[in-house]
Amino acid sequence: MSHPDHTLTSKRIPERDMYFTSDSLLPENQQPLMITVAPFGAQWLPADYTQDIAVSWKDQVQKAVDCYNAGATVLHVRVRDPQTGHISKSFAEYCDFIGMLRHAVPRMILQLGGSISLAPESEEQADWQGYDTRHLLTEIEPRPDQVTIALGTTQMNPLSLTTPDDVQGTRFADPVIRNEYQNMIVDAAPAFYIEHLKRLRAHGIQPYFATAHIHHLEEIEHLIRTGVYMGPVNHTLTAIGGSGFCGRNPFDFFEYLRRSPDGSVMTMESIWRTVAPFAAMAIALGVHIRCGIEDNLWNRKGERMSSAQQVDQIVRLAKELKRAVATGDNARELSKLGVWYNSAEETLDALGLPPNRKDGQLGFVVKETDGKLRGATAGSDGHALAEQIGAASARSGAEG
Question: pLDDT per residue over 79-134, tens digit each?
Fold first, then answer.
């Protein structure tokens, strides 16, 4: 299956795009836009959105195909049991579904949600699966391309950014369900994620870092500097609110982007009807975006919007800003699937981060230079003088 050519084609994929120079906002200098779609909606049951929640295997696969044809190149995978309509907890069904997707959308990046299930019954406590169960995701065959991984146990409460209008006609209108979700805990202590990173590498699956705030970037860097993780950094800022996650303040997004390693690949994720505004900002700034009914159900207030329609909306925004939309091959190259590094220093260099401090080294740690101080060019009332520019150039050439 060929991916549709939605906008411009990109001749070159830059390695590092998060250090902003004077030409960083020009679309021809930006990476092709990767659109991640989450169309399976782990928190929903079929009655919540009968027009867009796929239940049969055929319909679930078709949902992926529709989103790919609309322009998405990364598929956030959940597996729904066709017999019950609930998110599956069957290892065999995960293996079978990944196999179906490999056949139907072979160029799409298959990103498996690392929490397995977030849709409890009303009488059950909302919780993540145990560590042993979650480690089993590394053994799925055929292998997914990525498995999302959380760093640090924290509260996950999207209801802080949820209004009655957002959940109209869904199970979240039930106060019992809301109570379960607002008390949800993301259980991801170092005992989990350090072991999980080892197993993912052993099975050749790329970890995809699902972060909640800037301090998770600090933990990723710590894991790299200590040699625990040695590979590309693909990450999503999951801005869904509550006391454990950042919310909708765009300056949180801007600061997270500023603090992201230059060689990493960042995606922005919001919730409900702010998915589209953050998509517009992400497109303009040269980063990537996620959408789908797992994040949002609405186009405008009171008007539902399917996952494929959300992808199509983002493609239209990209077209207006003249930013290329990634093909499946673009997305795989950008994500560096199959790439691993062999040392902390190699990983730091690939991400554009300073090397580790050497024993006895004082001061700020920076990349090595030749140490030469270049002479300043003199000028008159703010304008350089032509003869002095020439002289400065000649001196620079002699020093080199």
Answer: 999 999 999 988 899 999 999 999 999 999 999 998 764 334 444 444 456 777 78
Size (the chain), residues: 400
307 φ/ψ sector (left φ>0, alpha ψ -120 to 50, else beta)? alpha
Angle ∠(333,80,273) on CA atoms, nearest 5? 70
Please check whether the domain covering 27-350 is classified as CATH 3.20.20.70: yes
User: Other C-beta atoms within 10 Å of 364: how many?
Assistant: 7
Q: Domain locations in the chain?
A: 27-350, 375-400
Query: Tokens representing 83?
Result: 């017999």
pTM above 0.70, yes or no: yes
Contact 30, 24 (CB under 8 A): yes
Q: How many helices (H) and strands (E) does the chain have?
A: 12, 14
Select from 98, 95, 39 the least CA-distant residue to 64: 39
- Compute CA 262 distance to the chain's CA centroid, rounded to the nearest angstrom: 15
Which DSSP string do the residues of 98-120 spell out, in sequence order?
HHHHHHH-TTSEEEE-TT-----
Condensed to tens digits (0 to 9), the pLDDT of residues 226-240 reads 999 999 999 999 999
Stretches in the chain below the pLDDT threshold 70: 1-18, 116-129, 369-400
